[in-house]
Amino acid sequence: MVVSQVQQFLTKWMVDQGARVESMLAEYGQLQQKGAEQAKQTMQEWTKLTQATMNYGMELNEQWQKLSLEAARRALEMVTHAPKG
Fold first, then answer.
1. CA dist., res. 2 & res. 39, Å (int)
2. DSSP line for 18-75
């Protein structure tokens, strides 16, 4: 009878442990999925930020070129239209 009780205890313990491991692995899978989703979202946000930064840089460069050209034109006008004395 003692052997039967020990066998029942061990069987129940093994089934319980199996259920715990299965539960743990399911939870780990969910956490892994959440982590992957967060990584994707982070990469998408970085992509948007990088694109916005590049667009802004290109806009600043275009503005700088326009201002430089205008300054050069004004300087040329000042030199060519300067009173001769």
1. 55
2. HHHHHHHHHHHHHHHHHHHHHHHHHHHHHHHHHHHHHHHHHHHHHHHHHHHHHHHHHH
Contacts of 40 (CB under 8 A, 6+ apart): none
Q: What predicted TM-score, i.e. pTM, was given to this entire model?
A: 0.58
Task: Convert the pLDDT of each residue in 4-42 to its tens digit.
Answer: 998 999 999 999 999 999 999 999 999 999 999 999 999
Distance CA 69, CA 77 (A): 12
> Confidence band (pLDDT; 50, 70, 90) for 79?
confident
In degrees and rounded to multiples of 5, residue 84 shows phi and psi of -95, 130
Mean pLDDT of 29-58: 98
